[in-house]
Amino acid sequence: MGVVGTFDAADFRVYSRDQRVICRTSRGLECGIVVCAVDQPATDGEVLRVTGQEDELILDRLERFRDRAYNACNDLLAERQLPGTLVDVEHLFDGESVYFYFLGNVDPRVDLLTEELAMTYDRKVKFKQFATALAQGCGPECGTKESGCSSGGCGTCALSGGCGSKKMPAKKLPAP
User: Fold this and answer.
1) Splitting the chain (176 residues) into consecutive groups of 10 residues, what average pLDDT does each group show?
2) In angstroms, what CA-CA distances link 162 with 56, 142, 145, 148, 173?
């Protein structure tokens, strides 16, 4: 829904205006766009990296899921004859949270409906373990020369099950 915040860069880089980046916020991992550099303390989280090709594939997939969740919510509102105007659905990059945005005050019955939808949607997506790999990769400094990692970064390890140069956790990650 377009929130502007201040973020530290995890890698101490200065990111260029209009770069798409992955950020860690209080809500989880999110995709954002750099507006400008600031000379003030960060209060909203940290920028982890510029989006890579793998991240863009994930974002495309999340966009399709977002559209499905939007349509499913509108269908349920009509089916149950509940008041409410759904404006947007937001699915965070890490797959941990789905946000439904309504116009005006939300009827408590609509609130229950969105909780039901979020649970159903989350079960279908099954991104919970995948989110851990996106956040941590195959270990500290994943994707960097210092780590010896041969992949393009955390997204590559999460999508492929590991880059092969570092030992992955014992749990097998589900495909997104």
Assistant:
1) 84 91 91 89 91 91 87 90 87 81 83 77 46 52 53 45 40 36
2) 18, 10, 16, 13, 10
- Tell me the three state secondary structure of residue 79: helix
Give the integer Cα–Cα distance in Å for 64 and 70.
10
CA distances from 54 to 24, 50, 51, 81 (A): 18, 11, 8, 40
Structural domains of the chain, count: 3
CB 104 within 8 A of CB 119: no
Residue 3 domain-assigned (yes or no): no
Coil, helix or strand at residue 87:
strand
Domain that holds residue 38: 8-51
Is there a single domain that holds both residue 62 and residue 102?
yes
**pLDDT confidence of residue 94:** 81
